[in-house]
Predict the 3D structure of the following.
Amino acid sequence: MRPGRARRPLPDFLFICPINYPMGGPADGQDKHIYAMRLKYKEFMHNKEEGEGAQQGMLAERTDYLSAGVHIGMKSCTGYMRQFVYKVRDDGLSVFNLRKVDRRIRTAAAFMSRFNGILIVSRKSNADEAITKFAEIVGCRSVAGRFSPGTLTNPSYRDFFEPDLIVVIDPLVDEQAVKEAKKKRIPVIALCDTFNEAKDVDLLIPVNNNGKKAIALMLMLLSREMLKIKGTIKKDSEFAYKIEDFGAESLAPPEGKATQAEGAEEADVAGTTQADEAAGTTQADETEDSAGAAGAAEKEGEAQG
């Protein structure tokens, strides 16, 4: 880029082109240009997020994120997911950087609002009420429980459906839906914990996808932000739903000495500066186990495809 020349945003078609490439690369020679453009778009969005992150407030109170357990990961962490980890606790559990989680929710909501035919899927019973309410609010379709093979690929199947976008709560548990979406070249958004692989996922939201409150809070924030982007509501106060409507209990403040100590220790998880995030990522890298070596081959569709 010549000095003094402003960088222009990449075209919107990059959002909607098929992005599930076999083996993580271009499907053929004609796709190489789009593949290269997507890599440039990732760099552009990264710089944009870093610049805007410190200026924007968080979508939910930090205490709400902590009370819902959004930040709690697992003891195992894949190579790709460690970039979202702030630190590893003494008990071995990874802790997500809430600032990065919050920014991913914004990005996912903006991306999802571009589609009309959305399908949200979860085989986890603790997510049934949440995905049902999410589908009701945003006007999409949901599949709670077993995802029948052929739902996306067999036109003769009675429940056959051709969505424009798939959202899964856990790409490991909802593997069948992800496989069929990849085969049909449908973009996939997934809620991913530290143990999840980013393979065949086009956009992930790092979050505790095992906790009922965490899932409910994520879908509540996504639905609220989508309605705001579409113009259905103009501000947060107009959103008429609470986390209880998504099947979870109310977010009470931490109680007890142990919980308070934990909350105080992790109160800086959502660091407001890039230096905090860099320090958190470095600490997570230093404590990464052997899963990091295997995770080098993992990727996320938004970066690779």
